[in-house]
Amino acid sequence: MTNTLLQNVPPVPIQLENDEESNNWCTKVSIPNYSAIQDSYVVFHILVTTRRGKLELFKRYSEFVKFRQSLLTEAPFKAKAIPKLPPKIMAKIPSKSQLEKRRRGLETFLNFVLLDSDLMGSSIKEFIGAKSER
């Protein structure tokens, strides 16, 4: 009998969706693709489904970094649970596989953060471009 090493088994793609009975505003998050802008930077295409409709966002990696830092400041009680972002790519022109790995990592991060009702604060509103209610 041979043992199968888990590191040799390809990951199964998952799509996290919120329970319909939940009080969370967000029900589904995906990053279906990305675009390289004039070989200068990359913008990730984000689709967010809410209870009121759909949002379409375009964000650079640096905006995710700022967003995560804001979340850590705003919700220190969740600091250990908030996933790390995929590492910065040091290549001037990243490969498709590097960008795909980053896309998947950013999608995992957003699924965790946007589907967690404990984290609905000003950082999320700013990231998605929602106006603050005062």
Produce the secondary structure layout.
Layout: E1 26-37, E2 41-50, E3 53-60, H1 61-74, H2 96-114, H3 122-128
Antiparallel strand pairs: 1-2, 2-3
Helix pairs in contact: 1-3
Can you characterise this structure?
This is Sorting nexin MVP1. The protein is an alpha+beta fold and 134 residues long. It has helices at residues 61-74, 96-114, 122-128, and strands at residues 26-37, 41-50, 53-60. Helix content is 30%, strand content 22%. Strands 1-2-3 form a three-stranded antiparallel β-sheet. A hairpin with a 2-residue loop joins β2 (41-50) and β3 (53-60).
Mean pLDDT: 81
Q: Kindly provide the radius of gyration, computed on alpha-carbon positions and rounded to a whole number of angstroms.
A: 16 Å
Helix/strand class: alpha+beta
CATH topology: PX Domain
Taking pLDDT < 50 over at least 5 consecutive residues as the criterion, the unreliable ranges are 1-22
Strand content: 15-25%
Report the total helices. Answer: 3
Main β sheet profile? 3 strands, antiparallel
Q: What share of residues is helical?
A: 25-40%
CA-CA gap between termini: 65 Å
Global geometry: globular
**For the record, what is the CATH homologous superfamily label?**
Phox-like domain
Instruction: Specify the CATH architecture.
Output: 2-Layer Sandwich
Number of domains: 1
The CATH class label is: Alpha Beta
Strand order of the largest sheet: 1-2-3
Along the chain, the helix and strand elements come as: EEEHHH
Topology, number of strands: 3
